[in-house]
Write a structure and sequence with these properties.
single chain; alpha+beta; PH-domain like; seven-stranded antiparallel β-sheet; disordered N terminus
Length: 488
């Protein structure tokens, strides 16, 4: 096993140009990775030390052995984990008895996040998380590095990814050095060349291209969430309403019975509801979106903070959500789907949630953000036929779709109106679906699948002739869109 260069401490900053060497994570990374289990570990330590204070000397020795094994396991995990960036690939090796080596081509990175849990913020550490299409979200994770090193490494990985893509495309990556030149030091001409070399089909939209072509690496602020509006929106959401009902029921039970123990049966439900509301507020708090040469930069979080960069061309779909109660205040939510993995078990509650560029904002703010993401904005003008009223009487008036040579858009929903735009070049499959009720009414649906797999643009309850026409035309339009993209 190769070791870090002489004189390099385990937690020392990563020097530019040293990516070919093997590096280790910060020595405190086992504590950060323990995270939520840290309190349990501390309680166990206290029990082992004080519960048997009258025990024999052998008990003390046994307790010390158990504690030593627990502490040494984290140290061994850190000791056998190392990482390296070479030839445009991030390599992570770990394992003592069973060695595991992972490879992550930077050209296939969908996004790079810098995440800080509450404990990591106290220790000044952060995680680097790579999103790879079709990979496990836990794979491309470096936990943990010093915060400054994590930020620097993210910029350098993005710069190397752009250079790798430019080389694969046979285009010059002017002003880029994969070994050590970060995005912050590039000139305006270099940034423009790198952006043109790596921009995918969706990234070459007019609004986002203008952002990428700006001189230097200075950010251009696109959106900042208002904390008071965020709190009000969560309170008026389904999760907020559920929390109010559950807490009100608990208060009523205590008032009627006069015993606090009477709520023991519903206490777990109350805790779960409150935690769901807290997670949403914590994840969306302080959301800031800015356009930069390396893509869209997002920062959010109250206790656990996240700094994320969505690289050009990685957005698979854009969805505008307008809940019924929010519409009275002129509020909406704008989400994007980025191709990547499903979440790990601890994040399963947020598995189906998209990344909110605008957790809650005005329609004008959403329109401005959409113009940054899409080169054109077709409207869903093709309404459902009259026969669809028998199958969807409540949502019939809101079923519509439309499109042009670049995007397909579909809308649906009465209580929560959702409008979804999908770039044609991102289509993975087109499905024609007809259920028994639709067959009797002469209806069918066309479903468009993208790599993100968390959102689809469904052309619901169309006439059979219209569905057949869309099913036959959309694959050809998608092929033409992909053919135009490299020359765009």
């Amino acid at each position: 096993m190769s070791t870090p260069p002489p004189g390099e401490s385990p937690g020392s900053p990563v020097a530019a140009g040293d990516f070919g060497e093997w590096h280790r994570l910060h020595p405190l990374s086992p504590i950060v990775r323990a995270g939520r289990h840290l309190a349990s570990i501390l309680i166990l330590v206290l029990i082992l030390f004080f519960a048997n204070h009258n025990g024999s000397g052998s008990d003390v020795v046994g307790n010390a052995v158990v504690i030593g094994l627990a502490l040494s396991a984290g140290f061994v995990s850190w000791l056998v984990t190392r990482w390296q960036v070479a030839d445009g690939v991030l390599r992570i090796e770990t394992g003592l008895i069973r060695r595991e080596s992972k490879r992550f081509p930077l050209s296939q990175v969908q996004a790079i996040d810098v995440v800080q849990t509450g404990l990591a913020r106290v220790l000044g550490l952060a995680d680097i998380r790579l999103r790879m299409a079709g990979a496990d979200s836990s794979g491309g994770r470096l936990a943990s590095l010093p915060r400054a090193d994590a930020e620097q490494l993210r910029q350098q990985l993005l710069s190397m990814a752009r250079a790798t893509e430019a080389k694969a495309a046979g285009l010059p990556a002017a002003g880029q050095s994969a070994a050590g030149q970060s995005a912050a030091g590039q000139s305006a001409a270099d940034q423009s060349a790198a952006g043109q070399a790596t921009a995918g089909p969706g990234a070459r939209s007019a609004g986002l291209t203008r952002a990428l072509d700006r001189a230097g690496s200075a950010e251009r602020l696109l959106f900042r969430v208002q904390s008071s509006r965020l709190a009000g929106a969560i309170a008026l959401s389904g999760a907020g309403a559920t929390a109010v009902v559950v807490l009100g029921a608990m208060a009523a039970i205590i008032a009627v019975t006069g015993k606090t123990g009477a709520i023991a049966s519903i206490l777990p439900v109350a805790v779960g509801v409150v935690l769901a509301v807290w997670r949403r507020f914590n994840s969306d708090f302080g959301t800031v979106v800015a356009a930069a040469p390396d893509g869209l930069r997002l920062r959010s979080g109250l206790v656990q903070t996240t700094a994320e960069t969505i690289r050009p061309g990685r957005v698979q779909a854009v969805r505008l959500v307008e809940p019924l109660v929010w519409r009275a205040f002129g509020w909406c939510r704008l989400e994007v789907d980025v191709a990547g993995p499903r979440q790990r078990k601890e994040n399963r509650s947020q598995e189906h949630r998209l990344r909110a560029l605008i957790p809650v904002g005005s329609r004008a703010e959403a329109d401005q953000m959409i113009s940054e993401l899409l080169s054109s904005r077709p409207s869903p003008t093709r309404r459902a036929p009259r026969s669809a009223r028998w199958k969807a009487p409540l949502t019939y008036h809101f079923l519509a779709w439309g499109g042009d040579s670049h995007y397909v858009v579909a809308s649906r929903g009465r209580i929560s109106r959702k409008t979804t735009w999908v770039p044609l070049e991102k289509l993975q499959s087109v499905r024609w679906v007809q259920g028994p009720v639709q067959r009797r009414l002469g209806l069918a649906s066309v479903r468009l699948d993208v790599a993100g797999k968390r959102v689809t643009a469904n052309l619901e309850d169309r006439g059979t002739a219209e569905a057949n026409e869309a099913f036959g035309r959309l694959p050809d339009l998608a092929r033409r869109a992909r053919a135009r993209a490299p020359a765009a």
